[in-house]
Specification:
The protein has about 375 residues and is an alpha/beta fold. The protein is about 40% helix and about 25% strand. The protein has one domain (about 5-170, about 270-380): FAD/NAD(P)-binding domain, CATH 3.50.50.60. The two termini are about 25 Å apart. One of its GO terms (biological process) is urate catabolic process.
Length: about 375
Amino acid sequence: MDKLKIVVIGAGIGGLTAGIALKQAGYEVEIYDRIKEMRPVGAGISLWSNGVKVLNYLGLGPQIAQIGGQMNRMEYRTKTGERLNEIDLMPLIYKVGQRPYPVARRDLQTMLLEAFGGEVKLDHQCVGVEETADSVTAFFENGHQATGDLVIAADGIRSILRTYVSEQEVTPTYAGYINWNGLVAADETLAPKDCWVIYVGDGKRASLMPVGGDRFYFFLDVPLPKETPDHPETYQAELREHFRGWAMPVQVLIDRLNPYEVARPVIHDVGPIDRYVRGRVALLGDSAHATCPDMGQGGCQAMEDALVLRRYLMTTNLGVEYALKRYETERIERANAVVRKARKRAEQIHGKDPEVTQQWYDQLASEPPSDVTDAISNVILAGPLR
């Protein structure tokens, strides 16, 4: 297609990756976000090989390798520290052709901003869109308007534009647990520096994952009512109570974390929904398919969205709306399957049915490591870059 002007709403991982991909394709791209300053949501992200491959495709392979953690194996342990399973990730890496890179969100966002290179217009709250036969205009709360050939709604799980595309309200669904996450200095008293260690028990998890800068990205999951009060000054006391009697590295982690640098998302997902596109407006990333983080695929799916959207815009001459429908057809099958699978896994991990969770613990203790890596590789290899 001729040179297009593309308006992107949202400067998270999906919006920035889309901006980079579409700018590289020769299109004019403007990115807007409602926030007043760029701050990443959450401390870290487990970027699996399908997401890394998108970055490689966009020429960002050296940069992500520099900021990503060297994760060579995984360990599952009981809450008191007994090893359930040890999984060498090298067979997975060779099977899919790329190592995963757990990464601090701030480092990833900085890398993507530098790669985009253009201005991201902040403090622009999108409140709606209007379409004509050959253009679409985004309207902002501050009175600004942006007109282009298409609008990409990468405005997250609480998307304003999802209602326009779906023509109905889609409310995020509570996944049943709260997650505390942050960064701490890597230390062998917590975990080996090349290993992702996950402690499990009572429907809870405590996890340490290596990221760049000689740090661990940690998270602690607890099934709780979503209305549970949120007070950073009591995080450590709450976590000590939730993880009383757990292994010493978990206790050390809770002692070392800075509660005022900890994110505490109440975990929700979205969908699966049956429309990602309406006319010249396309949902991308969490606005279309926010997933429970239990498969580490949220950011990866947003990156895949960006690549597939670029491909259809570049390879069709039947118009923007046709290209977007092709994008929708491919992505709705792939991403909705991940939403379903991640929700099922969240329920399995977090004790929605205690019997199912206990069966999972028993399975961890007996299954061959290849079963774990095969399941991960199946998800990775179902993406657009095999």
